[in-house]
Design brief:
The protein is mostly helical. The chain folds into two domains: 143 residues, DNA polymerase, domain 1; 207 residues, Intergrase catalytic core (hpI Integrase, Chain A), CATH 1.10.443. The protein has a three-stranded antiparallel sheet, covered by helices on one side. The N terminus is likely disordered.
């Protein structure tokens, strides 16, 4: 059990952690490479495209070709139905189709199929020849999604991405009508007409994290659940993790979900955690985050190391789930979020507007408040775009500090 936490958690953290008092002269751009973690694994290629996915795509394209529209010719598309099964290039064609479909994740392909079928239903509703990619048809479909389907701009853009995907497969090039300036203006107009919905999720920054850790160390029951949550909270915050990178959202698969082998002590100062795949890692190359042995009242290194020793002693195989619930089953998103809200409430914090994503939001907010650069925050959170800006929250206390800096 860790020593009791100081009552003033913010002051305690600042006094115990010299990194928060003095800016380090080092950065992500001057740092040397970390040693290869013991849990490093050879990257494996993604699983082959299932016959079901390819069959769905080909069926939709063939259906489009059978509705009085010309079948794509050999100069513009590989997704054709006129190549006999005994053609000498048929095996290589199938391999090419699989590789092309590997460019998009199976979940995204399913959403594209949903969008394409909605596009088909739109044609049927208005007695249009399918598929009609004219500017009139595309803009009318957008208005149909807004007025009839009641979709927000974000969903409309997702549907257009699906239509664009099928256009590329059919004709070997993107639709100029979808990229038309009038189409863009229409979407912009819809966006301005729809009230924006601010993200109400609250951040779990260092002060709230410290209170939660204190609750887990002193009063939360059962003890095994408290230890599991303790390690998960630490990793989620310092690793800027999404819930899917720490808890399972489907049937447990050791090739996808966290296993004991993914967590490893490199030395007495560093622990590595392997994220096998994530939203921004479509190629499934994997990514390592690190927990360091730094002076802090919440003791992240000691917490995670202690949990790793417990799981190694319990498990028969390193491929068993890393995080388990009271029934020794893999920790799920639902289980994690349920206990998060319970810990917050027992810590005297209203659980309203907090979710598992609050750790990622809190880490980005804390990093910005401590003066880390945008490039550093983007790299730490593994953002592939500037979307991290929407994660950074500012409250009156920090605005006051900024004003004090202005007049100081």
């Amino acid at each position: 059990m860790r020593p009791p936490l100081l009552t003033n958690t913010a002051a305690a953290t600042a006094s115990c952690n010299p990194l928060l008092q003095n800016k380090s002269p080092y950065s992500l751009f001057t740092a040397s490479a970390m040693p290869v973690p013991p849990n490093a694994v050879a990257s494996e290629p993604p699983p082959p495209v299932t016959q079901n996915i390819r069959a769905q795509i080909l069926a939709e394209i063939q259906d489009a070709g059978s509705r009085s529209r010309p079948i794509p010719n050999s100069r513009t598309s590989l997704f054709r139905s006129d190549i006999p099964i005994n053609h000498p290039l048929k095996p290589l064609l199938d391999a090419s189709l699989d590789a092309i479909l590997q460019a998009v994740s199976p979940r995204t392909i399913q959403s594209y199929v949903t969008a394409w079928r909605c596009f088909k239903a739109f044609h049927c509703a208005y007695n249009l020849q399918f598929p009609d990619f004219s500017l009139l048809s595309i803009t009318s479909f957008i208005s149909y999604l807004k007025s009839i389907k009641g979709l927000q701009v974000g969903s409309i853009k997702g549907y257009l991405s699906g239509i664009q995907f099928f256009h590329k497969l059919n004709y070997g090039a993107p639709s100029t009508e979808i990229n038309n300036s009038q189409t863009s203006l229409l979407i912009k107009g819809i966006q301005r007409s729809q009230p924006s919905r601010p993200d109400s999720r609250q951040p779990i920054a260092l002060d709230i994290l410290t209170k939660c850790i204190h609750t887990l160390c002193t009063s939360y029951q059962p003890l095994n659940t408290a230890r599991t949550l303790d390690a998960m909270f630490i990793l989620a915050f310092f690793g800027f993790l999404r819930c899917s990178e720490i808890a399972i959202t489907s049937k447990f698969d050791p090739k996808v979900h966290p296993t004991i082998s993914d967590l490893s002590a490199i030395n007495s100062e560093t622990i590595s955690y392997l994220i096998k795949q994530s939203k921004t890692d479509q190629a499934k190359k994997g990514h390592y985050i690190y927990i360091f042995n730094l002076s802090s009242p919440i003791q992240p290194y000691q917490t995670v190391l202690a949990y790793l020793k417990i799981r190694n002693a319990q498990a028969k195989s390193p491929l068993e789930p890393l995080f388990i619930d009271a029934s020794n089953k893999p920790a799920t998103r639902f289980w994690f979020q349920k206990h998060l809200k319970s810990v917050l409430q027992q810590s005297g914090i209203s659980a309203h507007n907090f979710s598992s994503h609050s750790f990622r939001i809190g880490a980005a907010t804390s990093a910005a408040q401590k003066g880390l650069s945008q490039q550093q925050i983007q790299a730490l959170g593994r953002w592939s775009s500037d979307a991290f800006h929407s994660y950074i929250r500012t409250n009156r206390f920090h605005i006051r500090k900024a004003h004090q800096t202005l007049i100081g």
